[in-house]
């Protein structure tokens, strides 16, 4: 049971780290998109400014570009904050300092999809450590139930002894003492109930 609990804890840590890694990848991608949008609108603003100076555009065109640029720059700040939070969270999950820099490698390729949904479900169930722990509990309880059933019949034990009683200072007379012990084991209903409960959790 302890091995299954350790495997479950390790699987949860690995899953959390993977989520943190992909969350940081997503945040970095959003940051890149936000910065590219700022560069594009800033380029349009410069073109509009040149057109106004040449007399081929109105100042309102420059003003519109400046408003859009300001909005996009706010988006860049939000994206950068998202990257900082994602990086700090990934460092926390890996037990590192929150402000430690990270050099992320490219994400690994996705595995081949299962042949069917049923195959995917079966593979997932086999890899769940908590289910393995429940199966081990069932096996242990079934062993206990089987042992209790084998000990259900009553048992009897006969004990005897020969005693020598002194009648006088010169003679002794033997006497026999016998004892009968009878035991009736009680079936462990709690073990049977525990077995049914664990089976219901599967």
Description:
It is a single chain. This protein has helices at 2-54, 59-93, 117-126, 129-150, 189-201; strands spanning 155-166, 172-183. The protein is mainly alpha-helical and 202 residues long. The protein has a two-stranded antiparallel ribbon. β1 (155-166) and β2 form a beta hairpin. The two termini are 16 Å apart.
Structural key phrases:
two-stranded antiparallel sheet, elongated, about 200 residues, about 65% helix, mainly alpha
Topology:
Layout: H1 2-54, H2 59-93, H3 117-126, H4 129-150, E1 155-166, E2 172-183, H5 189-201
Antiparallel strand pairs: 1-2
Helix pairs in contact: 1-2, 1-4, 4-5
Short structural description:
It contains 5 helices and 2 strands, in the order ααααββα. It has about 200 residues and is mainly α.
Proportion of residues in β-strands:
5-15%
Give the number of DSSP strands. Answer: 2
Mean pLDDT: 77
- What is the H/E order? HHHHEEH
Measured distance between first and last alpha carbons: 16 Å
**What is the global morphology?**
elongated
Percent of residues in helices comes to 55-70%
Structural class call reads: mainly alpha
Low-confidence stretches: none
| Sheet with the most strands, sense and barrel status | 2 strands, antiparallel
Rg result: 40 Å
Enumerate how many helices there are, as a single number: 5
Strand order of the largest sheet: 1-2
């Amino acid at each position: 049971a302890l091995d299954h609990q350790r495997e479950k804890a390790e699987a949860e840590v690995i899953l959390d780290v993977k989520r943190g890694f992909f969350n940081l990848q997503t945040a970095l991608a959003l940051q890149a998109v936000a910065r590219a949008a700022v560069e594009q609108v800033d380029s349009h603003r410069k073109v509009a400014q040149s057109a106004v100076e040449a007399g081929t555009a109105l100042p309102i065109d420059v003003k519109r570009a400046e408003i859009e640029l300001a909005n996009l720059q706010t988006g860049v700040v939000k994206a950068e904050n998202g990257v900082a939070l994602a990086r700090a969270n990934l460092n926390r999950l890996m037990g590192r300092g929150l402000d430690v820099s990270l050099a992320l490698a490219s994400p690994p390729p996705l595995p081949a999809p299962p042949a069917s949904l049923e195959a995917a479900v079966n593979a997932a169930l086999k890899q769940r450590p908590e289910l393995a722990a429940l199966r081990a509990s069932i096996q242990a309880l079934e062993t206990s139930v089987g042992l209790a059933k084998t000990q259900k019949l009553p048992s009897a034990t006969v004990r005897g002894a020969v005693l020598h009683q002194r009648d006088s200072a010169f003679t002794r007379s033997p006497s026999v003492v016998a004892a009968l012990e009878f035991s009736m084991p009680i079936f462990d209903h709690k073990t049977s109930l525990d077995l049914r409960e664990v089976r219901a959790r599967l």
